[in-house]
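Please produce the structure of this protein holding flavin-adenine dinucleotide.
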Amino acid sequence: MEVQPKTFADRDALIAHVRALSPSLSPEETFVSDTKGGRDAGQALLQNIDPIAYGRSRDYLGGAVSYLSPYIRHGLITLNEARNLALERGPEDGDAKPIEKFIQELAWRDFWQRVYQQNPDWIWHDIEDYKTGFTAEDYADTLPDDIRQAQTDCAAINYFITSLQTTGYLHNHARMYLAAYIVHWRRVKWQAGARFFLAHLLDGDPASNNLSFQWVASTFSNKPYFFNLENLQKYAHPQAPCDAASNQPLSGSYEALAEKLFPYGEPA
Ligand SMILES: Cc1cc2nc3c(=O)[nH]c(=O)nc-3n(C[C@H](O)[C@H](O)[C@H](O)COP(=O)(O)OP(=O)(O)OC[C@H]3O[C@@H](n4cnc5c(N)ncnc54)[C@H](O)[C@@H]3O)c2cc1C
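Below is the modeled complex.
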């Protein structure tokens, strides 16, 4: 087996080397994310966190999120470091309420890791049945090509797919939207969606990713997660194209969409 070099003159040399390993891939397939590796890059982002603004804006695509996940995932920044800095950045009177949301999200990461440690077989198997009125056999095993190629019937979904493939990152809400579209609008098994995410995410993590997918799917929650255009427009505009005309399948009230997506009934 050929021994690969481990050190490079600079980032460009590393990129050129990796591209040369797969000469048949198109430029789109070897797109390089702007995210820089290493502890220094992670530290710089960590120093930028604003946990109070995070608490107010986290659900918005343009919110004050940290972009720390690849560094946390690969062990360059620890959850403790992030929590301790958040505590320092909290209100001077010591009230932890405004920074609670940030710390809760760090805790979610820890929680998923512990669930994984104790139940390794939950990562690829349905933990429970779907609560969508369908059985697992009703869901396709593989991801349709139009999803892989960002050519679906929803402009916002195409935008999320392209972002995932070119940056290796998606905002949490965008992950929820895309996962829900794959599983509930297209009735594809969550495992196929999870594999697709893991192939592209720089923070790709079997515990956070697959257990979140199971939560969206309803195999690890009481009901399926889905959304409508109004919700998308509230949280994803102006980053994603959210107009009604190019996102028709997402239009409608929650009641109308539930009838369409789960015609055999969605348990309360
Ligand atoms: C379908 C789906 C797939 C996901 N796949 C992954 C994955 O592969 N790897 C991964 O690290 N996270 C995953 N998440 C969780 C979350 O979306 C990302 O951690 C977060 O969006 C990363 O962006 P950030 O660093 O800017 O997060 P911030 O919002 O700034 O949060 C700070 C840190 O808290 C942790 N965190 C935040 N939200 C969550 C959450 N909901 N669950 C667990 N940890 C969280 C992360 O370590 C994150 O870096 C997934 C969520 C969903 C819904």
